[in-house]
Structures are given as C-alpha cells and as structure tokens.
C-alpha cells in the first residue's frame, strides 16, 4: 500500500474520543508496519496554545504532562493486544514518542497550529497525520476543520480517526509472549508447591503439569503489559513499603467507622463525589480504588473513563480524600518517588460533587 | 424510577472487577488442579477440582462479558475436554482389563507408584469432564440470554 | 471429642465461632427486609465471610485442616456469587 | 494457656469486635451505600484479624500458609465485591441517602 505509512503523528488534547484515537493510531502503525516492513513509530504531540510563562504556567504544564502521560500508557497497553487476531504470530515493534510543541511561538490561527505540526513532522520524517475528530486545538473554538484544511495543503497524508463513542468493549486476550508465559508458570508453580507443602517427586511433577495448563490458559489473560523483571522487583519492593501504611490506614478507618456505627445518633452525612485521579492503567487504578474502599469512610462506587465515583460517609473522610495521601502513595508504588510529589486533589480541582439527579423523588 | 432522564450510555465493564478477576483466577485455577491431583489423600478429587476450575473461568466470564470470553476459549475446547476426560477414564480402566486385571485395577500397571499415578490420571479425566460440562452449560445458557435480548429489544 | 475434655483455649475458639454464627443469623434480618436486591446481596456477602471465618476457627479448634480447603472454596464461591448477582440485577440489557 | 494462645485469642476477639460492628452497621445504617461501607471496611478487618490469629496458631506449615492465602484472597476480593454491588446500584439509578431525607420524614 503506497498511500499508507507507519510513521504517524497524532496531535492530542482532552476529548471524548481521545482514547479511541490512540487505539486507532497504534493499530494502524502496526498494520502498515507488518505489511510493508517499515519501522513503525507513533508520536503524540501536544501543541500548547499559550506561552508557558504566564500565571497559568503550573496548571497548564501539568495538564499537558497528564494528557501525554495518558496517551503513552494507553498506547503501551494497546501494543499488547491483538485486535484483528491475525498478527498474533509476529511481534511488530512500534516506538511511542510524546512531545510538547509550540512553546516558543504564539499559536492563534489554525495556520499556526498546522505550521508547528508540519515542522515537527518534517523534523522527525513523519508522513502521516491522524486527527481526533473531537480534537479542539484552540480550547473551545471550533477550528478543527480549518486545521485539517491547512494540514492537507502539505503533501502529508491527513485523516480523521474513525472513532465512535461507544466502542468500549472490554478486550480479554492480549498477545502471548515468552516473558508472560515464564512469569505465569513460575507464579503458578510456586503457588502449587506452597499449597502442597511437601516437595516430593509427585508434587513436583503434578505441579509442573498444573503450571503448564495454567500458563496455556491464562498467560494471555492475566498480563496486559509484558512483565519486566527489573520493574517488577522495584514495584514489589515499593508495594511492600506501601502495605504497612495501608494497614495502618485501614485500622484508623475501622476505628472511625466503628465509632460512627456504634454512636447512638449515627452521625453521618453521605455524599457522592467524582474524583479525577492522576493514575492510569488497570492495575494501578484497581489498587487505588480498592485502597479507597478499605480506608476512611470512602467507597469506590463506579469507575468512568478518567474518574472514580466515590461515596463518602462523613465530612472528615472527604477531607482525607482531598489531601490525597493515598493517591500519592499509589503513585509512589507504580511510578516512583518523583511522581509522588504532586499537588493534592483539592488544589488540582480534581474533586467535584456529583449532583443527585432527582431530588424531588425522595419520599418514594 | 426516572430512567428516562438519565442519558443512555453503553454498559461498560468495571476495570476494578476485571483486574481482580485477572489476578485471582489463575491462582484459583491452580488450586482447582491441586485439589484434583490430591483426591487420593484429602478431601477433594476430580469432581470438586473440576468445579473449582470451572468457577475460575466463570469469574472471568462475569467480569469481562460473554463475548470476549468466547474469543478467548472456543466452544470446541470444551467439547475436547469432555471427550478427552471421558476417554482418559475409559482408556485407563480398559487398559487394566487388557493387562488381565479388573476395570480400573491400577495394580496391574507395572510402574513404580502405578496406583497413585493411575488414580490421579483418572481424577484429572473426571475433572476435565466436569469443568468442560459446567463451563459449556454456562456459556450455552448465557447465549440463550443474549439472543433473547437481541430479538426482543425491549427496555 | 466431648466438651469437658477440651482446653480453655479450644473452647474460646469455638465460642468465637459460635458468635460469628450468631452474627450470620442476625444478618438474615437484612436479607429478609431488603428493601433492594443490593441490600440483600450485601448481607449475603457478609454471611458468607462469617461462614469462612467459622470454618477456619473450627479447623483451628478441632485440628481439622481439611476444613481450610472448604473455607477456600467457600470464599471463592462467595466472591463469585456477589459479582454474578450484581451483574444480573443491572436493569439494562446485555447482562453478560 | 501459652502466650501464643493468648495472642491468638486476642486477635480473634478484636476481629470479633469489628465483625460485630459490621453486623450492627448493616442492620442499622440507612441505605445500601452506607451499608456497603460497613461490609467493605469492618467486615474485612474482622475477617483478616481472625484469620491472622488462626494463621499465627498454625505457624509455618501447610495449614498456616493456606490460612494466609485465604486471608489475602479475602483482602483482595472483599472490596471488589462491595464495589460490584455498589456499582450495580449506582447503575440502576438508586440515589444515595442524604441528611435531608431524614428531616423530610
């Protein structure tokens, strides 16, 4: 196919179809690369509209970093899945890059945006641009169409990602590979021997048979990302540091809940809130959500695209949530100490209360 | 209730449940196999182990939905399991008769620990059959549900 | 094993198991009253956890390690039941 | 009784207390979301403490390992089960109880 290319540029920004655009770009890069043997690469770039040297500096920079972070995590997740099911045998490497562009210029018109994007593409020899149909480069102003026209004047390939809003079908089997299989086998075998308690021939043989079966069935299910030995060790160590902290929090939570429940007046003021946690990826979100459920007066009710819906029992538990100590701890476990330094959810404005939809029907 | 007011959005599976299922089910599956293999000396055996194995699969099916589970495990696998389990049982049983013993008389196999391994193989066969039957029953019942929803389409 | 021959320690463990059994019975109130299906599931889940603890306490008091396997299976079924029922009561189509 | 047995009984009794709190909470709290708080926190801790006590008694042998595995399993699945139930309720559109509901009655 001559008109396709595996070197793709994707301008990104928050939008309702952002997730699907990332998925489409990664899928296309892999498809074309496996057909042509080209070296596949996807660049996610964020054109910033304002000079970063004004009072909004901090919040804008954070939002940009957050968006690019998300794109990277999602893209890496997608690389481990097989949407067509046909490419399972060959593993096509796709490199993922993220960048912020246009900090050094004033971006006002669609033409400005197009210029910085095209410059970037020319520098990195990218020859295909995929645009998110809901992308709003200039904030709220509808300038996508003029932007696409401007981009199309170059000789690059420009297209809109074909995304629909409700395609969130959960994907189950990811790609199989050796490292997943080895990890799975080791985990299952250890577990079997722990259960058996005796290391005789019989247990070693049946344990190996069992671990083999488990590996065949589950290695593509349990892991989304390919396990990486060094990262695994680091995370395990950090997680072990996290456990005592979590236990302490659980104990505190229980004493306060016990006080509330046994108090004759039942002093509760429940409320639902939406919390945009700065955490992405299945495992880390689950850790955070279950930690929230276990600790002071808060319960994770639902999980939407990028936010958790949390039911809290009292005002003091809401204050605890706003300080964001748990979020920071989970970020420490998964992303390291530097990532743990982050403004609290209250400062970021990440928590909003969820309005009750039908206040009139209370007597029902 | 006021379901009219609420915006219609697609039902999305919960990441939290999915991840928990991902982590827990392989261990449950291993436990099921452990129970199958240790039927000889403790509470357990092929039937119980097969049921545990099947429930680990059903946990995944509940967390992810029926369609992705079908993509993961094809129906033919279960047919193979059911047939293979029964065949293993029959082969070992009849093999003993061929060697001049009674049906399932393991002692006639002249291997060291022949009795023990014979029992375990039979248990594994029973377990495979039980797990296969339970999961394929579950899948077929669920298929009935989704077909009705497609045909009726009322809510 | 007759009760008189048991040590204080074993009696205490069995007593704790009895208390958990009493909790399970008390929770039946919520199962019967409801009012919603979810309330019932919550109560059933709590009864299930109590049952697991009872099994483990009995295993410890009477030294019957076989009960631990049953407790493990019970815990598994308890989790499966909670997920299964909470998916089935979602009113919208496409339950599975 | 040996000191170990005192420790075990102590843990089991504290666990018993938290499970009692959970039971009172499930019966007494006004709506299902608040009741889910009771199961996810108090019941989990009650279970974990009781099982921890028993694991201490069994020590480092197969039974002890099994009890610890059971404990971990409960610790992972209990909050997930509470989430599953609360999510189903939220999805059905059941509104959480608020302070004003009580005053309205």
Automatic annotation (TrEMBL), chain A:
Keywords carried by this UniProt record: Cell membrane, Membrane, Transmembrane, Transmembrane helix
InterPro entries assigned to the protein according to its UniProt record, in alphabetical order: Cation_antiport_E, Rossmann-like_a/b/a_fold
Main location: membrane
Protein name (record): Cation:proton antiporter
Membrane disposition: Multi-pass membrane protein
Record-level Gene Ontology MF annotations: monoatomic cation transmembrane transporter activity
A GO cellular component annotation in the UniProt record: plasma membrane
PANTHER family named among the record's database cross-references: NA(+)/H(+) ANTIPORTER SUBUNIT E1, NA(+)_H(+) ANTIPORTER SUBUNIT E1
Source species: Haloferax profundi
Source species, domain of life: Archaea
Keyword field contains Protein biosynthesis: no
Localization per Swiss-Prot or TrEMBL: Cell membrane
Regions that span the bilayer: 178-195, 201-218, 239-262
From TrEMBL, chain B:
Domain Na+/H+ antiporter MnhB subunit-related protein: 16-135
Pfam families the record matches: MnhB
GO CC aspect terms: plasma membrane
Location in or out of the cell: Cell membrane
Keyword terms, alphabetized: Cell membrane, Membrane, Transmembrane, Transmembrane helix
Annotated membrane topology: Multi-pass membrane protein
Main location: membrane
Residue stretches spanning the membrane: 21-40, 46-66, 78-104, 124-145
PANTHER family, A to Z: NA(+)/H(+) ANTIPORTER SUBUNIT B (PTHR33932), NA(+)_H(+) ANTIPORTER SUBUNIT B (PTHR33932:SF4)
Protein name: Cation:proton antiporter
Record lineage: Archaea, Methanobacteriati, Methanobacteriota, Stenosarchaea group, Halobacteria
From TrEMBL, chain C:
Leader peptide range in chain numbering: none
Subcellular localization, as worded in the UniProt entry: Cell membrane
UniProt GO molecular function: sodium:proton antiporter activity
Main location: membrane
Record key words, sorted: Cell membrane, Membrane, Transmembrane, Transmembrane helix, Transport
Transmembrane segments: 12-29, 41-62, 68-90
Domain of life: Archaea
UniProt membrane topology term: Multi-pass membrane protein
Cellular component, GO annotation: plasma membrane
NADP found in the keyword field: no
KW Protein transport (keyword) present: no
UniProt xrefs under InterPro entries: MrpF/PhaF-like
PANTHER family from the UniProt entry: NA(+)/H(+) ANTIPORTER SUBUNIT F1, NA(+)_H(+) ANTIPORTER SUBUNIT F
Protein name: Cation:proton antiporter
Species in which this protein is naturally found: Haloferax profundi
Lineage, highest ranks first: Archaea, Methanobacteriati, Methanobacteriota, Stenosarchaea group, Halobacteria
TrEMBL record, chain D:
Domain of life per record: Archaea
Molecular-function GO term, any one: sodium:proton antiporter activity
InterPro entries reported in the protein's UniProt record: PhaG_MnhG_YufB (IPR005133)
Transmembrane segments: 6-27, 48-76
Keyword entries, A-Z: Membrane, Transmembrane, Transmembrane helix
Record bears the keyword Protein biosynthesis: no
Family matches, as NCBIfam families: CPA3_mnhG_phaG (TIGR01300), PRK12674.1-2 (NF009314)
Protein name: Cation:proton antiporter
Species classification: Archaea, Methanobacteriati, Methanobacteriota, Stenosarchaea group, Halobacteria
